[in-house]
Amino acid sequence: MLIVKILYTGGLSFDKLKSSSLLTEKDRAFADGFLQPKDKIARLSSAYLKRKYVGDWEVSDFGKPISKTCFFNISHCDGLTAIVIADNDVGIDVEKVRPINDELKHYVCAENELEAAETDIGFFTVWTNKESLSKAEGSGLTRFPNTIPALPLSGKREFNGEIYFSRSMIVGDNVLSVTRRGGKDFGLKIEEEIFTE
Asked: pTM score > 0.85 for this model?
């Protein structure tokens, strides 16, 4: 069972979050560098969850946060930030479901994935599967999305000679997908993080 901690950020003020004793001055300065308030909160809430559940981390050449003590990954979208910790390389992506157009579907999806992406929820399930897989693999979205396999949406997939296992679920108005290296099945449990500082 993999536990995903979710911090809902919609009603969280930047100044309140910034006052957390878990955050470093570097975390605060990095978040302050963004112009939009929602981007500031997303970056600061990411740092908060990483400090709380991982401790210290570094950033890989591909921009993936890595730790010497555990495997983890983080994702955020409008209104929430999520972190997952695992026993192997792991990726997580969460996206708010919204209307998309056919041009984007054809850019993101391989031909055999178009049927799964017919609805907006289906499209974002395909999208989050692709992004969580590329994050688990370690490169992120550095290649065309239609070259990253999304099927099956929950189950085993091969990518660059490695086997991965993915799970997806709906969380409110969002689709969340987690992918872990190795073919071992896992369940997902969502736990809400309450910011109390």
From this structure: yes
